[in-house]
Amino acid sequence: MHSFLKNNVFSISFGTSLSKLAGCIRQIFIAAAFGVGVTYDAFNYAYIIPGFLLIIIGGINGPLHNAVVAVLTPLNKKNGGIVLTQVSIKLSILLFIIAILIYSNSSLLIELLAPNLSSQAKSIATYQLQILTPCIPLSGFIGLSFGALNSQRKFFLSSISPAITSVTTIFFILFSWIFNQENISFNFLNYTGLLAFATLTGTFIQFVVQILEINKIGLLRLNSTFKLFKDEEKRIFKLIIPASISSGLSQINVFIDMFFASSFQGAASGLAYGNFLIQAPLGILSNSLILPLLPKFSKLKSDKDVRGLQKKLISGIEYCFLTTIFLTGFFITFNNQIVQLVFQRGSFDYAAALKVKNILIAYAVGIPFYLYRDLLVRTYYSIEQTNFPFKCSLAGIILNIFFDWFLIGAPIENFGNLSPYNFGVVGIILSSVMVNFIVCILLSFNLRNEDIHLPNLDLLRKIILMSFAAFIVSTLSFAILKTANNFNSNLGQFLLLIFGSLTFFAVYFLLTKCFKVNKFKVSKKEI
Fold this sequence. Notes:
By secondary structure, the protein is mostly helical. 77% of the residues lie in helices and 1% in strands. The chain has a two-stranded antiparallel ribbon. Helix 12 runs parallel beside helix 19 (387-407). The radius of gyration is 24 Å and the shape is globular.
């Protein structure tokens, strides 16, 4: 059993790591090819609806994936195949109808999502959305096959599958560069739906690979009858609908942010690049800090050990802020080196780099509240109290609309800006920071109603000391970076980032130890 678990963990970790690496290389190629320009801006708007469905319906650990795993795992291959085929056909028909409606109304949808985009960007976005619509019915089967493969302990393909689209995009960009070298006056990248075609092709290849694998393991039953296993079908759809609504609430804030971002040229591209840089370490932290706590919370809740749960939660909060405040200081301090090394080449010029640096700093400020909110929400779910987080999510949407509008100047047509504060695209990010901060406070204080009492003043004292330690280290690092202005080459910036990262980590670790807010224990043997 130990060997079985070990092999599965290795398959998932290895496949996920390859997918993340492919995604990173894809973003580097996109930055070099498109920079912060109208084409990539348009693609980000065109991808909102298909991307939403690919994440919610076709994503790993999405509602569809989890529902299929829960229902198919107890069934044998023959019966599981019948259920999978029946659900696939019905869901694909529904999604195909949705895709036709989106294709027919693509121009209207882009107008609703991005009313302030330039006419050129709207035209390109509409064209790209029409190309992407076949991804919608494909996403249904992809989500179902993820769950079906995992129910049969086939983890590697599910983990590596997202890399297919990334690799396809890289090949499309490489091909376009070769094409352009033959005719420099015609820029293939600016006038076609290159990214949309690449995404559609990658999604289709992913669909074909997974349908072949499903057939190989005996889960594809085309001769099945719709009269069998009605209860299992109902269970899948019953699990999908509420989970999709809940997952969709967080995506609504993305729609809102993109709606207001359409007022600023290059904002959608800048947000995509900045968010990409932040999400990688946040995903690692979320998996390593939060996921291990949730089974413990559930067990302590079932054992009615409220004090034990409270103790674990407090410890989790301390580790959450200790690591995220470090990340905030790190990204603010080394934003120049990070953006230059990852993106600044080709079409991604100095102006694009400056825009993304400011966005990256704004995102960095919100890292602690983002992860703390994630920890609290998952805590509520682990103790089976979901109503209050749901209400907070609804309140967060309303607050996000107001703060987005206010922080970009509170514009009203024919009246101009009502607010003296116009932070541009940075204001849209700061809006999310403020919303997460408010929601964190509400979730924290409401825990008392669940008989979980947090030592708020003591936690606040520790957070202040952690922040002071990060401030000291950032100030020291800025002083060192100022004396090394001559290292403008990529190699020089890389060496600065490596040396600076190690120094930043070591000094922050020692300072937080001195302030007695760091519970990490490192033995001499480990050093």
